[in-house]
Amino acid sequence: MPVDLNTSVPHSARIYDFLLGGKDNFEADRQAAAAIVESSPSLPISMRANRQYMARVAHYLAAERGIRQFLDIGTGLPTSPNLHEVVQSVDAASRIVYVDNDPIVLVHARALLTSAPQGTTAYIDADLRDVEAILTSPEVRQNLDPAEPVSISLIAVLQFITDEAEAHAIIDGLLAPFPPGSTLSISTVTAHNLQAVEAAAVYRARGIPAKERTDDEVRALFRGLELVDPGVVLVNRWRPDAEAEAIEDTHVQMSGGVAVKN
Hints:
Blueprint: H1 12-19, H2 27-39, H3 43-63, E1 69-73, H4 83-90, E2 95-100, H5 103-107, E3 120-125, H6 131-135, H7 138-143, E4 151-155, H8 164-175, E5 183-189, H9 194-205, H10 215-221, E6 226-227, E7 233-234, H11 242-245, E8 254-260
Parallel strand pairs: 1-2, 1-4, 2-3, 4-5
Antiparallel strand pairs: 5-8, 6-8, 7-8
């Protein structure tokens, strides 16, 4: 069935792709990106920092916490290293289910399915808000064992959920079927950076819902869970490597953290 990309309307995933130097974007996305960067010049740096954060978190969960099952929601366009590449480099038998509802991500989903032969990857075309559809999908049922811990990733997606009650309900629903030892990883737009606040305003002006959050609001998303050190911080400050250490905080517009279900 043909996929309607609706290329005349900017889309967050394609804007993100353009700012990361990708080619899967259209004129409307590039125009929106130019407007956002005009008010927020450090956004491309911040997006790269966020991508590096995802990779560090994934490696930590696989290498140090022994997680072997991953549910990544709001996957975005394939950009190496993808989550499955990181975790399967630790254990090739790791199982990953990706979720996104962007038609252009669906078009490129095959790039997300290049699993090591010992493990599996799967892709679900679903909306973050439809938790039941995600959890009852054949992809989740066939690839994720509910008796074993699962890592749930919400990387650079919750800023598009502007109602806190809805965000909490989504998180509670996603975690509910999985056992203690499961984890939640989040990154989202911080309210403590003026450029981030201005960029969110430009997103909204372009018809894309966006919300910046204070650190306390981000911590509240982890309620009932045990935050892993260093807690909620700018993404470049979460267990940084040398590359992350070199990034100035003023350029980073995302904060996040990782927590464990007890």
